[in-house]
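Subject: Sanity check before I submit

Could someone independently write out the structure tokens for this chain? I want to compare against mine line by line before I put it in a report. The sequence has 91 residues.
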Amino acid sequence: MNNVTLGGADPRTGQRFAHCETMGGGMGGRNGQPGISGGEPRGAGRNTPIRGGEEMPVAGNTWLHLNAGDRLRIESPGGGGYGPPEETPHS
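---
Independent answer below. Compare away.
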């Protein structure tokens, strides 16, 4: 599960705003849980702020301030695999 809350003030009006976004993680969204029918577990999500072209690694559960022009890369891993990898056809 990946939850992101963005907020601030509109520079034109000063009106405050907040936006909450939740991205799913499949099968309950818990890291380390096995996939379906023997599938591999899901990976971990990651949020990476980028300021002036430099990535700023942050902890999995954190609060941070973004400035105008900063970017936030959101990586959501989805769910785990289906079936044992050795029995899964690869394309």
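---
OP: Matches mine. For the report I'm noting this point. The chain has a mean pLDDT of 80.
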